[in-house]
Amino acid sequence: MKIFTKKRVVVALLLLGAGAVALAVANRNKEPKLPPLNYRVATVDTGSITHTVTATGTINPVALINVGSQVSGTVVELKADFNDRVKKGQVLLKLDPTIFNAQVGQARASLASSQASLSLAQANYDRNRQLVAQNFVSGSALDQSRRELDVARANILLAKAQVDRAQADLDNSVIRSPIDGVVIKRTIDLGQTVAASFNTPNLFQIAQDLTKMQIDTSVSEADVGALKNGLPGRFVVDAYPNREFNATMRQFRLAPNVVQNVVTYNVVLDVDNQEELLKPGMTAQVRLVVDNRPRALRIPTAALRFRLSDEELEKERKAERERQGSKQDAASTVAQAQAPDDDLALQDRSDTARVFKIYKLDARNQPKPVDVRIGLSNFRYTEIVSGDLKAGERVVTRSLAPAQGM
């Protein structure tokens, strides 16, 4: 008897479970189906946003000295070549000294002649002074001899100056390094003639220290407002595409560069080049870190550019009128008609420049407009400062299907 009772209980439980399952399936079938999602969406989240300024620049030595020549001549000795490390005062090249030695000899001979003339003028003056004292010659003769003595003394000074100049030209025929550094450029060869007429010819370029480099960049005028000295930056060069190097902004130069009505400014960054991997003249793609938000409410920047088509806007207005009713719609129309004109030209631009309209999906997968105020922004993410938007909600970034297919 107990066995039959247990079987009845089991059968009743099975029937009850099957009925519950059937009821759940029926209720699920009765739930309204959501329309297909015709938009690409992204989820609002909290994360880091970094604002950077990008620029292109050239890597140069901090100190680059052009070594030239003050005299003309033919190169007879060349003692430095590309990439040579030189010391201050080291001989780089020598010009043919034949003409300079001849000029020094001529100047010294002229000095000796002037000294002889001075001795003669001094003797004549002393003699005439004694004769004037004895009334044998007139005073004008003494004055003439004094003049000749003064001219001889002046000729001595002139001859000494000519000797110094000729000796300086001889010394300048030997070109020496003005600093300790590395020869990165040489424009002269053995046997070539150096002509120093109006412009000083550049024979060598010497970089003082290749372990300390700088990047000369051109930054757009739209980005200079966020720049300040000491900003950190990172850059890459084509020679090492898989490696990033660090830099620090050192100087913002006020002189503008205008090319085809495009204004840019030169920004100088310091680079530590202890490994000497970076070479002068390399092109650097620079990113300066202007600001950072470690935990910001953010959306994809593409969501700011999404706009509904005219057909979708009309459909949205029609659905809104159906939900609110004709009376509320009429009241809203009257209120808008009585509202004053919103002249954006008379408002502070800072109040309107950071306000955008985006679209988030409601429970029925339909885009709903939301006005938000944005903060920090880059090409990937944008910070949301205020607006009816929460983390976890979905925003529309683009349309996947044309409006007429909806």
Structural description of this entry:
The longest helix has 36 residues, at 98-133. Mean pLDDT is 83; it is low at 337-341. Strand 12 and strand 13 (240-259) form a beta hairpin. This protein folds into four domains: 39-48 and 297-335 and 346-405, conserved putative lor/sdh protein from methanococcus maripaludis s2 fold (Beta Barrel), CATH 2.40.420; 53-62 and 209-292, Efflux pump adaptor protein, beta barrel domain (Elongation Factor Tu (Ef-tu), domain 3, Beta Barrel), CATH 2.40.30.170; 66-96 and 173-208, RNA polymerase II/Efflux pump adaptor protein, barrel-sandwich hybrid domain (OB fold (Dihydrolipoamide Acetyltransferase, E2P), Beta Barrel); 98-172, Helix Hairpins (Orthogonal Bundle). The strands form four sheets. It has a six-stranded antiparallel beta barrel. Strands 3-10-8-5 form a four-stranded antiparallel beta sheet, with no helix packed on it. Helix content is 33%, strand content 37%. Helix 2 (98-133) runs antiparallel to helix 3 (139-172). It is α+β, with helices and mostly antiparallel strands and 406 residues long. It is rod-shaped. It starts with a helix and ends in a 7-residue tail after the last strand. The protein is built from five helices and 19 strands.
Q: Approximately how much helix is present in the residues?
A: 25-40%
The CATH architecture classification of the largest domain is Beta Barrel
Tell how many strands the DSSP assignment holds. Answer: 19
How widely separated are the two ends? Answer: 66 Å
Give the averaged pLDDT, no decimals. 83
Task: Report the radius of gyration as a whole number of Å.
Answer: 45 Å
Total helices: the number is 5
Proportion of beta-strand residues: 35-45%
